[in-house]
Amino acid sequence: MENATPMFRQYLEIKKRHPGTLLFFRLGDFYELFSEDAVTGARELEITLTARQKDSPNPIPMCGVPHHAAASYISKLVRKGYRVAICEQSEPAAKGVKLVKRDVVRIITPGTAVDPQLSDAKEPVYLAAVSMVGDHVGAAFLEVSTGEFSATEFSTPDAWAKVRETIDSFSPLEILVSDSVKPLVSETFGVPVQQTLLNKDEAPTRVTLGVTLTSASGVIESYADAEQLLKRHFGLGDLAIFGLTGRNAAVSAAAACLRYAQETQRENAAHVSEINFFETNDFMVLDPITLRNLEIVESKGESGKKVLFSVIDETITGMGARLLRSWLMRPSVKRSEIQTRLAAVGELTDSILRDKLRFLLKDVTDLERLIGRLNLGTATPRDLSALGRSLERSPQMMASLADVSSLLLQVLAENIFELPEVRSLIDRAIAHEAPPTWSAGGVIRGGFDGELDELRELSLSGKQTIAKFEENEKQRTGIGNLKVRFNNVFGYYIEVSKGNVGRVPGDYERRQTLTNAERYTTPELKEWESKVLGADQRIIEIESRLFLEVREAVRAETPKLQSTARAVATLDVLASLAETAVKRNYVCPVLHDGDAIEIRNGRHPIVEAFIDEAFIPNDLFMNNSTDRILIITGANMGGKSTILRQAALIQILGQIGSFVPATSARLPIIDRIWTRVGASDDLASGRSTFMVEMTETATILHNATSRSLVLLDEIGRGTSTFDGLSIAWAVAEYLHDSPEHSCKTLFATHYHELTELAESLPGARNYQITAAEKDGEIVFLHKLKEGKAEKSYGIAVARLAGLPRTVIERASDVLRKLERYELAIFSDPKKSGLAKAASRSAASQMTLFGRSDEESSGTVSSTDGKEVVT
Fold this sequence. Notes:
This protein is an alpha/beta fold.
């Protein structure tokens, strides 16, 4: 723009260097947005859109937010998938300088938000990257705020499906993708390329899977560049120590994450000190469907609190809550690891030890994220004060753990560092009531620096002298309303009202004329002004330098600080699990190398926590031989789904190292839990409820192993009765007979015909949820026992729901006729006549579900396109 002001030209130059971002341009006490950014910002933030040069032919749209409240506005934008570039002054304002230098100090994106105001303390903020080298697909996950860094790689034919599962288990908020993998990522997530994956100079887009996809083209040009970046960052000659040798795709993905973090944070990110290479078989896999159906961390209903995480979360620190969440999302499959956790939880059920540790944890801040801010150069004086208070608890924690017997607690005690030098430095240097920022002074404690103390004394005495000067001038001039004031433009000045101008002494020098007053100075006032302002400016300079020196000295201890943070977070989780166990009467499960699940008086942890009456417990026994498939029938609302879910939740709790809601439990190690529960559709993709059900079922049948646990609830209900029954029958047989995919299965159904499977399949057993009916009223007993239910009590439940009496009576009449003519198609004889069909005998009923055509004694004939069984 030829006629643009110098300031706006500066803005345009900076904006050009940061395409694809909303540029928050600092002007005084506001962050301003201009042009298209302003239009977007005003719309998304619901703030007023105004304009610069309103009277010109081309006014410039603009909007702004106060700098002290910017975090809340930025948070809204980032949650919607936008990237925000923060532009600040890069030099102090000085007299005679009309335009100060400005530059972008940080770019905030959905996957790199590190400020406490931008994220939930209990939820991680993962940045992910996906890359492809040859036929290998790599994925990496970086939590920028804590430095947690993980990577994996796949080369199997179903590599992209496994990448999707892994991404879902971490739930990143932003995924970096290169041009070469855009089509494959789009296909994996079912999102059109042109709608989501944009060029690197365009803004990323929030898409249906709940993450922001960002082009990483050009971030890492080659594998060689990626390897060199990681080697240089970690100071290593090779990456073998991280298990990355030959893992080219994983290395490329990891390098993309690290480079992006460095570019957005404008820092080296030294707190990212290691990479954890993992395989998906290192933990139990819980896909998004299972996580949602079991309500692990997210509820299907309106209340997000009614989830397993909220029930067992008694953590005190944010880092502890995030660790517990990660354990739930990825339960362990390593028996030794689980048992060491269980032993530690068992020892912490001692209320004296647990209460002592939890009391100490109340004074511990979120050390992991604080260390991240320390290394990213954003830690504040209050952060250092919080760090000092937290470290003061280290010796007490170590003393409390001195006599523990469990191995894990002993290891944690060894990894907590007292760091007396750091504690002493913070205590001596940082003011106990530290300000939120270090640029305005008041950060350094008195006595820490001699020169600073002298300047503070000079500043204080000078201000006292100026106050005394005001009183003297009032007496000398006789002007009672004379004031000595200060502002950043004129410094100190004497203000006299218009009515008293005639009484002003001759030695007063006029500085400014106002509507109702005149402003003056004197040689004496100038002298003291020079001393005071010079001292104040020097104080700010010294305090800034000292604070940065202290912060750097503390940052140098990052490895020990991170070790302490991880140990304390783990201790917080273990104490939380012990607190839950005691509060909710959970017991320690017994893990074994067999395949049997044996639960006595098991309870559903979520339902139990949110009902007023006592929960009715149930026993459960399953194995891979005699009790492989449990076919559960019973009344609607009787508790079949509860039994399915509580079995899975107890297994998950056991494998994170938690006690479980039961009187006893013997549990194997499960590699994966599969669920097909509830009705859902995907209308956007044109998939009906039944199609979604069949797709999920197909995934289970293709991928379940002998170490899996499968929960099936009402398979086949989305189509006609015979279609659904046939599918359910075949699915049950497959899960029982398949050499590769047979597994422990809980199969809840209203198809009572499926109970016949127990007579033909050696590993199938019939169970029922008991209920009773008296005078037409149903009583749910909620007890699981062997045998098959005689009826589903659907009409009784309909009566409870409030259906009209005439509907209930008519339904009862229809039911009686259908039970009499089980294979007849019922219709109103007045309209089209009742289709006559012979009821089948017990023998014919068995042959209907026979396992070969030769065994069938019935025939199927066709008349006018309609099949009739005879």
